[in-house]
Design goal:
Blueprint lengths: L1 E5 L2 E6 L9 H17 L3 E6 L3 E3 L4 H6 L2 H19 L5 E5 L2 E3 L1 H7 L3 E5 L5 E2 L2 H4 L5 H10 L5 H6 L6 H7 L4 E3 L4 H13 L3 H34 L2 H16 L2
Parallel strand pairs: 2-3, 3-5, 4-6, 5-7, 6-8, 7-9
Antiparallel strand pairs: 1-2
Helix pairs in contact: 1-3, 3-6, 3-10, 6-10
């Protein structure tokens, strides 16, 4: 991951293989970079990816290799890192340059403003199609970010949609030509950075506090529930099939 400064805006570019897949190592690196952003005194954060993916989701071979205790530790850490982004006291803008699927979509949803590039990118939470549940960190932040009518196609059906439909569902706020994505996203981040910082932080923390509280209230049992579903027969079968397809393409 690369962290650069452009005036008041810190730009964090995810670089982790072809798909920016989320593994334990990815989460730890992201956590370190978020700490660096806060120490830097940046007034806003722009988060984007490299290549054809913002993030294509969890590193499924890594997930499939974990035993129950290991998977529970992983999903707890995933929740902690996502909430760190969600509650960052400065504005966060996601410049969605490519596919934002499952965990990658979750990461994008933690941002205050989400701008997607036009083109053949797909976005959404397809966990149900993989036989996986949705932990509280996903459900609570999703409930806060999208309108109620979007919950059926996004959460229960697990549809992957293009940029235009993603905007209609509330997954993104704007869609712009790919060649202008970073320019537009930086301008948005600069505009948010120009707002009085203490006031922005106070309001952001206040309106997001119920989400944080809801996740914290169930996090212990929630992780176990998610792992139980992940270790069900249908989930293991589907995940094994997906990993086999991914491996064959390498």
């Amino acid at each position: 991951m690369d962290l650069e400064s452009f005036g008041p805006v810190a730009v964090l570019t995810m670089r982790s293989g072809r798909a920016n897949a989320i593994s334990t190592e990815f989460l730890e690196r992201l956590w370190v970079q978020l700490e660096a952003v806060e120490r830097s005194g940046a007034a806003a954060l722009l988060l984007t990816g490299e290549g054809k993916a913002f993030s294509a989701g969890l590193d499924l071979p890594h997930v499939l290799s974990l035993d129950r205790p290991g998977l529970e530790r992983f999903i707890r850490r995933f929740s902690e890192v996502m909430l760190r982004v969600f509650t960052l006291p400065i504005p966060v803008v996601a410049a969605i340059n490519g596919h934002a699927i499952a965990g990658g979509c979750v990461l994008a949803l933690q941002a205050d403003a989400r701008i997607a590039a036009e083109g053949d990118l797909r976005m959404g939470l397809n966990e149900v199609q993989l036989g996986l549940g949705l932990p509280a960190v996903i459900l609570e932040t999703l409930r806060w970010q999208v309108p109620p009518q979007a919950m059926l196609p996004v959460a229960l059906e697990g549809r992957l949609v293009g940029p235009g439909e993603a905007r209609e569902l509330g997954l993104v706020h704007d869609v712009v030509p790919a060649e202008r994505l970073l320019q537009v996203a930086r301008s948005r981040a600069e505009a948010l950075a120009a707002l009085p910082g203490p006031a922005f932080s106070d309001i952001k923390q206040a309106i997001r506090a119920p989400v944080l509280a809801a996740v914290r209230a169930v996090e212990k049992d929630d992780a176990r529930r998610w792992v139980d579903v992940a270790f069900s027969g249908s989930a293991r079968e589907r995940l094994t099939e997906v990993v086999a397809r991914l491996t064959s393409k390498r």
